[in-house]
Amino acid sequence: MPHYEPLNTAALAEIMAIVGDKYVLVGPDIPEEYTRDAWTPPGPPRYPEAVVFPANTEEVAAIVRSANRRLFPVVPRGGGTGLSGGTVPVYGGVIVDLSRMNQIIKIDPKARYIVAEPAVLTLDIQKEAAKHGLLYAGDPSSDDCVIGGNVATNAGGNRAVKYGVTADQIYELEIVTPQGEIVNLGGRLKKNSTGYGLVKLIIGSEGTLGIVTRITLKLNRLAPIFTTSLALFPNFSDAAAAVTVILDDPLLDPISLEIIDQKTMAALARYREDWRFSEQGGDCLIIQLEAKDEGEQAEKQNQLAAIIQKAGGIHLHPDSEKVWQARREFGKAIQAESSVLGIEDVVVPVDELPDFSAQLYKIAQTVGLEVRIAGHAGDGNVHIQILPGDTPEPEWESKFHHFTQILHSDVYSRGGRISGEHGIGVKRKQYFLEHVNPVELELMKSVKKSFDPQGILNPGKIFDIAGI
After folding, report:
1. How does 390-409 read in b/e, with b if 16+ C-beta sit within 10 Å?
2. Distance (Å, rounded) from C-alpha 107 to C-alpha 116?
3. pLDDT tens for each residue of 324-333
4. What is the DSSP string of 399-468?
5. Is 369 exposed, middle or buried (0-12, 13-18, 19+ CB in 10 A)?
6. Closest residue by Cα to residue 328 from 132, 154, 122
7. DSSP assignment string, 262-316
8. Residue 190 reports pLDDT greater than 60
9. Where does this protein have coiled-coil stretches (predicted)?
């Protein structure tokens, strides 16, 4: 375990001098929400010693410099919507809540980029871009996530099938290093072969290598026409098999290609009290296409209809824009019907998706649990909600652990990984250690030691390092 010092009176006074007394919470003033994120299971809460609300990069840097002098851990926090325990203060210390850093600094429609602070809602970035006829392609299917959190986990989302994940949208990052230095990484460039690619190293590092304080994002031209279709299939395997056919078609070039199983659709219908998308029954694909004019739109819709029919689809709803809000709420719909559940975020090569889907149901049946699925089929990222079904409560934890072990082994055997976008955090740390190549793990630990020799920044996430 790393050695940290408690946050004594002198340390607290120093922090208050940096941000102002009213922007520091201690003791009973700290709400329980700071002991968890959107995943954290029931159990004794882990409180930080303080929650601090910096207003700018300089204040963040000063806090981190203080942490290095006084040896207390610092946990950066964006929107708190993470699903891996990434903002849980494992060793106490200080949570740096970035919520005051929530401004869009600049948008340049001509050069097609936007500069934002870490606590800006991703949804607001999309809206601001759309005002100028532009598209911010990052879309992690959440109304509440912030761009800093997207960077921390390299979030993917609905449009990754065409436009890539968060890393593919980023030009430049301003970060505070674990020593409290401020540095700009990357650049607003089409290409860059100047030394190590540190931007890509920071993205997805879950706040363990630096605190992101400003992000420069690329924007795309917004297509004149978007269409969303809902295709229903008699079973999940047929829906999964249709994914590669749609992706291989040279005309369609889908923006989004999502998959939802029949039971999840039924849960969404009950949660939203709206049966329009599940009245036909069946597992489904959500397909979003873009077109430059109505002629191209009609051509693509006709081609899609032919593909769905040939792939065994039983129905195609061609005008289904309202399904997106339901898609964003699938987790809430499942949670409304089961207070006990587990969440997994595996990713497999897209060509493995049909066979993996069939195997997933077999694993659940063998272990005696139930699964609900709503995933980013176009990039092989499958979000799985695991429910106890008839499993007695005392047996749930052991069964869930057994299920997860079998699931992860199957995923790795296919060339997949245990997290597509939620991250490792504390949730998947043990599973990660079971599967990661030892050489790869040592390289990661070496990077962490080089960046953060005292283990100040978000310790206890991804892996542990003895002595720091």
Report:
1. ebeeeebeebbeebbebbbe
2. 9
3. 888 888 888 9
4. HHHHHHHHHHHHHHHTT-BSBSSS--TTTTHHHHHHHS-HHHHHHHHHHHHHH-TT--BSTTSS---TT-
5. buried
6. 122
7. HHHHHHHHHHHT--TTTTT-SEEEEEEEEESSHHHHHHHHHHHHHHHHHTT-SEE
8. yes
9. none
Predicted confidence at residue 35, as pLDDT, reads 95
d(CA 211, CA 234): 47
Map out the domains of the chain with their CATH numbers: 1-222+436-468 (3.30.465.10), 225-328 (3.30.70.2190), 338-422 (3.30.70.2740)
| Secondary structure, 3-state, 22-76 | HHEEEHHHCCHHHHCCCCCCCCCCCCCCEEECCCCHHHHHHHHHHHHHHCCCEEE
What's 391's DSSP letter?
-
Q: How far apart are CA 204 and CA 211, in angstroms?
A: 12
CA–CA separation, 133 vs 224, rounded Å?
9
Shortest CA distance to 232 belongs to which of 271, 288, 273, 279? 279
Name the CA radius of gyration of the chain, rounded.
23
Helix (H) or strand (E) holding 105: strand 104-108
pLDDT tens, position by position, 87-104: 999 999 999 999 999 999
- What is the SS3 assignment for 144-188? CCEHHHHHHHCCCECCHHHHCCHHHHEEEEEEECCCCCEEEEECC
Reported as half-sphere exposure (CB side, CA atoms, 13 A), residue 8 has a value of 6
Q: Is 318 a residue whose pLDDT tops 90?
A: no
pLDDT given for residue 278 in this prediction: 57
Q: By the 8 A CB rule, do 7 and 50 touch?
A: yes
pTM over 0.90: yes
Higher pLDDT, 252 or 38: 252
Which two structure tokens, joined as six digits, stand for 193?
């072969």
DSSP-derived 3-state class of residue 220: strand
Residues 388, 338 contacting (CB under 8 angstroms): yes
Token duo for residue 52: 């601090």
Residue 72 — very low, low, confident or very high, per pLDDT cuts 50/70/90? very high
Residue 386: predicted pLDDT:
96
Contacts of 210 (CB under 8 A, 6+ apart): 175, 176, 177, 178, 202, 451, 457
Distance CA 177, CA 206 (A): 13
| d(C-alpha 239, C-alpha 246), whole Å | 11
Order of strands, edge to edge, in the sheet holding 94-97? 24-26, 50-52, 94-97, 74-77
